[in-house]
């Protein structure tokens, strides 16, 4: 009996809430929609897409410290700290804006395939890759020279990407429910796999040490993909309307930003199985996110909304209400 009671106590502790909650909001304001955001830990900056601009935020001071303007439908931001360069995907102009991390000055605008969405930097090859959602392809760019190396087919509707730091880039294919592995040095697809039961994968994160990928999917499932076998090994439940995920290697937590129901799902390995261990209330529409590995906080983009009109699920965005939600302990 004592052993059974001990097991019950340990199980309840393992599945207890992780203690995350909304700690604060960082006001950005202005108008326009948003997509991805990126944490630059080397320079302690957060870069947030905002329509025709990228807002630059000091997360420690909790304020906006700069802006990169006159862009063209921003989707994602990638950072190459060792090169002192950042890269912004412009979905409307089929291009990448290159900028200086210290001065925020623009350094060039190489062309890409059609409607570049996610963007990732591979430190081994020193190449930037855009995932061109409408073109069903990817564009490889030399991060040091801005030279376009090639654009090559990868599959239907590429979404978010993640890098392992050793020359491999992973990309979700939203329409075909697949994940592909790109060899960054060769600018070519090396492997692909189906993500069932995950459907409509969008956000993607990676546990480099544990060799796992975490695609978040439109049917309220987070896939757990073993990189070695390239197979789905778990599919814990998440909230609705996700478009972004993240992984924090410190506590070993995978996250899903669920804009449809205004929650943040937290998944971790418990007794050898990946389980959803917490669901944190956030805000409706907070569907993209980034993890701050230094502070172990999660940043989500959101805006306040007015009353929902009859027959609609949500109301219009209130002017000048754009902000970052800061979630942590």
Structural write-up:
The protein is mainly β and 329 residues long. Helices cover 4% and strands 51% of the residues. It is built from 1 helix and 29 strands. The strands form 7 sheets. Strands 18, 19, 20, 21 and 22 form a 5-stranded antiparallel β-sheet that branches. The protein has a 4-stranded antiparallel β-sheet with strand order 1-29-28-27, with no helix packed on it. A hairpin with a 4-residue loop joins β16 and β17. The radius of gyration is 19 Å and the shape is globular.
In short:
The protein has 329 residues and is mainly beta. The chain is built from one helix and 29 strands. Strands 18, 19, 20, 21 and 22 form a five-stranded antiparallel sheet that branches. A four-stranded antiparallel sheet has the order 1-29-28-27, with no helix packed on it.
